[in-house]
Write a sequence for this structure.
């Protein structure tokens, strides 16, 4: 690329500048934004070619492909921001097929007037998350909408990854008798965002668990390539995820409240906010369903990984034509863990 | 999948219903929207698995990956809508690497209150475009933002495709002496959208050229696998595309105004709107740069294809350290075809 400097009379003003409509119109201003912000932060050979697509080497095998639109509000929250979230979220969706994530794309819808300083902070956070995960952002797009027609920034990321030979992980593979594991304490992401949104002082130290889980998944598959189901319980929390799996597999589930890992501070914040941690979003946790013979090995592998230190076996899959997810409560009773009908936490991711 | 009907007490109301926040919150309403709208329209084995990612068979070889956020306004315009556009746009970006597009993902950001009837019309239009192109939409995501924080619907699509052995197409491969071809008349998409937006009666019969170009590209590569550059001149039009290529390749270009294919009605509408067709977006056209020995063959292949009937050779690549794109005018003079500094057509795609 031999773009000459004279094209940009002044560098972008990342202190006081704001996004304007020209940044999305395909002309000089957009080229400058791409060069001085995105190329600078995401720097890699694919983006540097400045083509409208990336040309990628991919090892032979089946691919997993996942996409996520991120509209979290607020854009910055304790433990993360929309940038890191948009990298972790899609890496995790790819990893939940047992795949090794290879490449990400990123598409931005910016609102006119959004501060360039905030945009740079978000993009740098994405770049850091992608570097730490070793999954490059290889292609992208930027659009701008008029003030009042967006909300700062929305980021859609798409990821592809390669699925190791012999791995067959899918939501319809849970079987009666299978064990249900989770990789750590529940509800941190949702509570962190809600506490931030509501200005709750007492919960302001709760940080989102946003993290890329592909390393944890690789460690689990290493010891048990026959894992049946993996899923990250984001929107709708663990309750929704288990219901989705139960429905897809045509099975029931019985979990035990006493085994659910929930930190005291999240439990307290949930109590205050009127939330049930079972329904609150996580962004750095996974649920795993595997054959009984694999359960101990998988649990040990999870606990040996920094992102699975508090992993727990929480229940098992049952035979149930109604596909009910039920819970043995701490008081010794049973209750249904149903789908939520309505809204719990809007714009949580 | 054994989802039981009782989960949805009533089917979605596609006549009078509207998007509400529950459709994005991961609960029952979102599952119903996915099942009754997206699964129904995009119907394929990948989506039916209801996993958070698609598991895909991919032939060996290099992959092309492209992503595009679509924010076009209005959502419906003569000749297309945001749905068909979002399929064509990304297929074309993949195809411009010479790749055969294989799979698409789609992520929706919906505004609370958006009519479900309009959403269904858009989704059905996407489904039709994807079926006609034989590129399935294999995975997706849906988010909802509050009324006033979005603008009806934004759609980000991402595509992957496989690049045939021996094909090396990139914006930095233009060489002095190469020929510059375009596949048809310029400016139709941009003029159709602008005329619709401005309520111009006299131009209301001009239809967007939105189309998937991978078939045309395959026909061109068949006769000339050594094509140097392909690019679809969308935002910023042909002028911007040629400037991008000139800069990336470190060359100049000389095109001839008299050879530019522009229909009389688009020229008239541009005159009225104060637009230059060279800078107006196309969504079903491509620019091709190839060695002189390939030019006639490629041009013949383009003209033999329904989407390239009006293809033309419009100029050639020159040696120019300044990377200027210039044009011989119909009057016999020369003028610079520079980047636009500012905004021409906001939210055109």
């Amino acid at each position: 690329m031999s773009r000459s400097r004279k094209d940009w009379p002044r560098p972008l003003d990342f202190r006081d500048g704001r996004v304007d409509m020209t940044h999305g119109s395909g002309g000089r201003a957009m080229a400058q934004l791409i060069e001085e912000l995105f190329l600078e932060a995401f720097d890699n050979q694919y983006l540097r070619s400045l083509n409208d697509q990336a040309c990628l080497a991919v090892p032979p095998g089946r691919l997993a492909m996942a996409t996520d639109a991120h509209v979290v509000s607020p854009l910055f929250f304790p433990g993360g921001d929309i940038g890191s979230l948009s990298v972790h979220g899609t890496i995790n969706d790819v990893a939940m097929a047992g795949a090794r994530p290879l490449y990400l794309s990123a598409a931005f819808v910016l609102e006119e007037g959004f501060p360039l300083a905030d945009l740079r902070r978000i993009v740098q956070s994405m770049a850091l998350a992608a570097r730490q995960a070793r999954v490059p952002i290889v292609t992208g797009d930027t659009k701008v909408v008029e003030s009042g027609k967006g909300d700062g920034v929305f980021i859609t990321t798409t990821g592809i990854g390669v699925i190791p030979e012999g791995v067959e992980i899918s939501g319809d593979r849970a079987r009666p008798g299978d064990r249900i594991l989770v990789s750590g304490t529940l509800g941190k992401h949702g509570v962190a965002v809600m506490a931030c949104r509501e200005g709750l002082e007492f919960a302001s130290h709760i940080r989102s668990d946003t993290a890329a889980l592909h390393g944890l998944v690789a460690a689990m598959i290493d010891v048990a390539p026959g894992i049946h189901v993996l899923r990250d319980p984001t929107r709708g929390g663990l309750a929704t995820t288990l219901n989705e799996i139960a429905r897809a597999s045509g099975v029931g589930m019985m979990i035990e409240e006493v085994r659910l890992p929930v930190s005291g501070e999240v439990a307290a914040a949930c109590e205050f906010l009127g939330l049930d941690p079972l329904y609150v979003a996580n962004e750095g946790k996974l649920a795993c369903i595997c054959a009984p013979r694999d359960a101990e090995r998988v649990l040990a592998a999870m606990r040996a990984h920094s992102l699975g230190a508090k992993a727990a076996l929480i229940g098992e899959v049952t035979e149930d034509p109604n596909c009910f997810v039920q819970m043995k409560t701490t008081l010794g009773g049973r209750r249904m863990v149903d789908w939520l009908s309505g809204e719990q936490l809007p714009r949580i991711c």
